[in-house]
Every structure is written in C-alpha cells, then in structure tokens.
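SAMPLE LOG
Freezer: B-3
Tube label: C17
Construct: single chain, 371 aa
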Amino acid sequence: MIYFDNAATTQPTITPQIYHNPSSPHALGIKSERALRDARVKIASALCASGNLPSALTHASLPAHIPVPEEIIFTSGGTESNNLAILGYALANKKNGISLTSATYEHPSILAPVRFAQEYGWATQCVQNKAHLFSVSHVNHETGDINDIAAISAEIKKNNPSSVIHVDGAQGFGKENICLHLIDMYSFSGHKCHGPTGTGGLWIKKGIRLTPLLHGGGQENNRRSGTENVSAIVQMAEAAKLLSQNKQANHVHVAKLKSILESLQDALPDVCVNSLSRTVSPYILNLSFLGVKGEILVHALSEKGLLVSMGAACNSRKRAKSALEIMGFDIEIAQSAVRFSFSPYNTIAEAGQAHDIVIDTVKRLRNVMRK
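STRUCTURE (predicted):
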C-alpha cells in the first residue's frame, strides 16, 4: 500500500513506555506525572520553534510572550481542543456579550461549535462586541493553503484590540512556521503529527479565560478533567519534538514528493491544482481530474494500492456542500477533486509509483465514462 492520506491521520512512530495514573501518589504515579511535565516542555518547545517575528511587524507592537509548559492543556484530540477553545471562551465571557467568527470553509470542529454557541445564544456574529473570538486554521485541511496568521491577527486586533485569536494547528503543528506573538490559543492533534489517535492539546496564553467543558477531578490545571492518557501524550510529545527538529529537512523531502504528483498536470489533460493562494504547504496537494468523480477515483486508486481521500475524513459520509464549493471553486472541479497528503516517511519511489497508478487509472475511468 502507498499511503498518501496523511492529512487524515499519520503513522505513529513512537513506542509507548509509561501508562500509570499521574494523580496517584505512589512512585509510578509520580513517574507518570514527571512524564507529563516533560511532555509539556517538549510541546512548548515545539511551539517556540515555530517561527520568528515577521519583518512586517515590529517588536514594539507585539507582547513579549513565549509559550511555557504550564500553558499546555492535553485533550483527546484536535476536535476537543477546538471545542474547548471556542465553547470554553464563549461560556467564560458570555455575560459581557461576545462574538465568534471564522471562515465558512474551516474544519467542522471549528464551524460546529461556533454555530452551536450562536444557536444557544452564548455568542453572536457581531464583531463590535467587547469580547471577540476569531478562529482560523494554520493550514487549510483541504487545499493546504497556509494562512498568513500574523497579518490576519494584526488586522483583527487593529480593529478590535480585545479580540482573541484561536488557531487550529492540526495540519501545521511541527510542519509549518508560525508567529505566535499575536495568537492567544493554538490547537494541535496527536495523530496529525505521528503521535497516536485520541490525544491532542491546546496552548492557552496566560490571561485567557476559559470555562472547562469536562468537570471532575480538576486535571490539566482545572481546564480539562479526566485521567490523562499518559502513554499517548508521551508518544505525541516525542513525535512532535522529532517532527519540529527536522522541519526544514522534512519540508524539502515532502516538496519533492508533491512535485512528482503535481507533474500529473503535464501527463494528463484537464487536471487542476486547487488552492486559494501561492503559499501552500508541501504536505497537501489537492488535484481535480475533470470528467472523473472524486469518490469513484478514490475507490479505484484504493484497489490499485494507492490510498488518498476526497478531503476531511470527518466529512466523508456527509452530503453537504464540500469545502471547495464553499471556497468558490466550480462544482465540476469540486466534485472531481482528490487530496494527496504526504509524510516525511513516504519515499520518492512511492511518489513515482503513485504518479503512474493515477495516470493509468484516470485514463481507464475516462474511457469508461465516454462509452
């Protein structure tokens, strides 16, 4: 199998080493608690290594804040992290009247809690309120477009200095640089960075008020109750550390993989690369093969041993309008789109094989469609 669906989930690369309850007072519990503390240090370091200040922004205009381990909250994954950031902020600030906004094509784990808070009257869409939360993805999960978070944040805070910026970093954490100086919360997901499924986290800048969504033992600094999944968290933190440390080399490697698949434009007629900008992550490539439904092509490629997707896995069973359609792409382009997503562990040979499999499969399907 050639696995090019890494934006959906990645292969875990770290072996679990510890599993005891970190709240237990005995020696193994204390060992687990120390492992959690070390994991927070690694995650904070990975965030700190995300990037420097962009030249367009001056040091004088930015708060001097660096993520610290105490600001890292561990969760069950990116979806819970996004829900905690959005709904937790809405609940903590609703008495003062708040607004929540995001782009209409963001990941469902952003759109759904924003809609939920608005439907229940916890927040509005009005951006003139004193408290305002804006949620935006670091890297678009469908097209790989990298949002200029620094510019977006600066513009929002220029118009409303009290605004809080939440970034969904599921597709960018450990892979792409980002300026955190105007960001207040950053979500990440373990299974997107070669950690295990069922774990993730949220960086919450000191001073940001959140109401917990889970209540009980008061774990995670009273932000997220429940016994921590120490084994998974330790694996995630180590995987994130390795990914971040090798970020530049990984970038070069996956860019080579992507270029091989991008050359399908030259090998086949009526192939479109789908993106909103020129600043696109090398980890994601969205291609449309006109005349072939994306769903049919994905299944046909799977039979050939090439695993790709049509986009976000959590949308695969829904019949709603696709993210590409919402972005403004033509319906034919949207319906024939396929997402290839890469990993540093994929090889050049796999990309070459995938290139040939796609050519053969698309030609065969187009011939069938014409009959």
